Amino acid sequence: MDINKVPKQFCENISVAYSQEFFIMAMMTGEAGIAYALSPQHMKRLSQYLTHQIAEYEKNFSEIKAEWKPGMMSPIQTKDVMGGEQK
User: Fold this and answer.
1) Of 35, 39, 54, 78, which alpha carbon lies 20 to 30 A from 47's?
2) Which is nearest to 43 in space by CA: 27, 14, 22?
3) Per residue in 31-70, is it b (16+ CB within 10 Å) or e — as a string?
4) What is the pTM of this model?
């Protein structure tokens, strides 16, 4: 697969839920989204991969200043793009 030919969207929100058997990770763009089911082992490898990629980025550029807070809203909201309150 040529990653340069894959359509790209800005992911403004990610939500994760889990049970003993699997994780569900939903990635949203506006009101559209895709949910993925992952085994616990796959989710752990994804976490490790993301940690590695962030470390590589920070090695090449600079430390990313960010703090995760549960329930944090995306800085880009549908109402901002649509011009007013979302209905």
Assistant:
1) 78
2) 22
3) eeeeeeebeeeebeeeeeeeeeeeeeeeeeeeeeeeeeee
4) 0.72
Percent of the chain with pLDDT over 90: 56
pLDDT of residue 86: 45
Asked if 49 and 43 touch (Cβ cutoff 8 Å), the reply is no
What are residue 17's DSSP bridge partners? 24
CA distances from 39 to 17, 21, 49, 67 (A): 12, 7, 15, 27
**What 3 state SS string does 12-71 have?**
CEEEEEECCCCEEEEEEECCEEEEEEECHHHHHHHHHHHHHHHHHHHHHCCCCCCCCCCC
Identity of residue 72? M
